[in-house]
Each structure stands twice: as C-alpha cells, then as structure tokens.
C-alpha cells in the first residue's frame, strides 16, 4: 500500500492531505527545496562562469607567451650572428688598410697579416669558435674528423697521420670536421 491509500490516521502528520490533495507542509518543503536547488544552480553557474573566464585568460596568456617565444626565435635567427659580425668588422678594416698601403716591404706586410690573424683568432675565441687540429698520432674521432684516405703507417691503426685541413667547433657542435689522413696500421 502507498501513503495515498493508507487511512488518514496511519499517515504521519506532515503528510495529512490539504484540500487539493497535496500534503499540507509538502508545498512549503517543495518551495524550500526548489529555492535551495535554484541557489545551488546559480552558485554553480557563477563558478562555471568564473572558471570559463579563467580559462579564457589562461588561453590568452598562453597565446601571448607562444607569440613572444616565436618573436624571440625569429630575432635570434636574424641577429644571432651580430656579436660575431661585430668581432669580424675590425679584421676586415685591417685587411683593407693593408691593401691601401702602396709602399710596403714584405716584412711590414707580414707583420700586418700576423696582427690581423691575431684579431681574427680573438674574434673566434670571443664567439667560442674553436679549431679542431689533431696532431699526428691522435686517435681518429669520426665525430670531429673526416678521413680522406687511409695509408699504411708505423702508427697504430685509426690514428691521425696528417691533418690536411683544420676543422672548427662552435661550442660543442662541429661546424666543419678536420680533414685527415688516417693510419691503416703496420703492413706485414
């Protein structure tokens, strides 16, 4: 049996029927429940709106960070060699000055070239451009050396016999490997 079908005396007081057949206190309880649910809904909607606003701000911040990072990378590509170029300008000036001199002796020309070479070496050092110049007998390093040929030699196999052209590193990255002749070992 349901509460509607129970005799009135068995129903709890809060369920005694009103004139329209609904419980007397039920209408007030429903209104209170409805008001509470509306309040919860409004609070949830306000919180959702706040979170949506935060999401939009975070997206805008992320987009700004991405755009600034792209600009920084672009500037780094454009101006990355600026420091190196500034170091090379005096070297070019020295070479032009040497060529502009009409009456030079071989000795003066040599001194000028040596001074210019020192400027160039200094520019390389400031910009962390280092030589790869293996000496005879150094172990062959395929990461920094390029073997042009292999020759029989008194040296152990896989060692440098001769450096044909220096290589260069920028920090830890090979710009150009050193060209070398490598020992094939002793021939029997």
From TrEMBL:
<dbReference type="InterPro" id="IPR009012">
    <property type="entry name" value="GrpE_head"/>
</dbReference>
<comment type="subunit">
    <text>Homodimer.</text>
</comment>
<dbReference type="InterPro" id="IPR013805">
    <property type="entry name" value="GrpE_CC"/>
</dbReference>
<dbReference type="Pfam" id="PF01025">
    <property type="entry name" value="GrpE"/>
</dbReference>
<feature type="compositionally biased region" description="Basic and acidic residues">
    <location>
        <begin position="7"/>
        <end position="17"/>
    </location>
</feature>
<dbReference type="GO" id="GO:0051087">
    <property type="term" value="F:protein-folding chaperone binding"/>
</dbReference>
<keyword id="KW-0346">Stress response</keyword>
<dbReference type="GO" id="GO:0006457">
    <property type="term" value="P:protein folding"/>
</dbReference>
<dbReference type="GO" id="GO:0005829">
    <property type="term" value="C:cytosol"/>
</dbReference>
<keyword id="KW-0963">Cytoplasm</keyword>
<comment type="similarity">
    <text>Belongs to the GrpE family.</text>
</comment>
<feature type="region of interest" description="Disordered">
    <location>
        <begin position="1"/>
        <end position="31"/>
    </location>
</feature>
<comment type="function">
    <text>Participates actively in the response to hyperosmotic and heat shock by preventing the aggregation of stress-denatured proteins, in association with DnaK and GrpE. It is the nucleotide exchange factor for DnaK and may function as a thermosensor. Unfolded proteins bind initially to DnaJ; upon interaction with the DnaJ-bound protein, DnaK hydrolyzes its bound ATP, resulting in the formation of a stable complex. GrpE releases ADP from DnaK; ATP binding to DnaK triggers the release of the substrate protein, thus completing the reaction cycle.</text>
</comment>
<dbReference type="GO" id="GO:0051082">
    <property type="term" value="F:unfolded protein binding"/>
</dbReference>
<dbReference type="InterPro" id="IPR000740">
    <property type="entry name" value="GrpE"/>
</dbReference>
<dbReference type="GO" id="GO:0042803">
    <property type="term" value="F:protein homodimerization activity"/>
</dbReference>
<protein>
    <recommendedName>
        <fullName>Protein GrpE</fullName>
    </recommendedName>
</protein>
<keyword id="KW-0143">Chaperone</keyword>
<dbReference type="GO" id="GO:0000774">
    <property type="term" value="F:adenyl-nucleotide exchange factor activity"/>
</dbReference>
């Amino acid at each position: 049996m349901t509460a509607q079908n129970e005799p009135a005396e068995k129903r709890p007081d809060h369920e005694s029927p009103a004139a329209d057949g609904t419980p007397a206190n039920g209408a007030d309880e429903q209104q209170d429940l409805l008001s509470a649910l509306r309040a919860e809904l409004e609070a949830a909607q306000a919180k959702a709106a706040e979170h949506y606003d935060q999401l939009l701000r975070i997206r805008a911040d992320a987009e700004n960070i991405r755009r600034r990072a792209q600009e920084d990378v672009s500037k780094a590509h454009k101006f990355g060699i600026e420091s190196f170029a500034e170091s090379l300008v005096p070297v070019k000036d020295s070479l032009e000055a040497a060529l502009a001199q009409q009456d030079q002796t071989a000795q003066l020309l040599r001194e000028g070239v040596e001074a210019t070479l020192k400027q160039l070496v200094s520019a390389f050092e400031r910009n962390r451009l280092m030589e790869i110049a293996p000496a005879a007998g150094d172990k062959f390093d395929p990461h920094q050396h390029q073997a042009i040929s292999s020759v029989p030699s008194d040296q152990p196999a896989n060692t440098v016999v001769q450096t044909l052209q220096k290589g260069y590193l920028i920090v830890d990255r090979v710009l150009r490997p050193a060209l070398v002749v490598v020992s094939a070992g002793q021939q029997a």
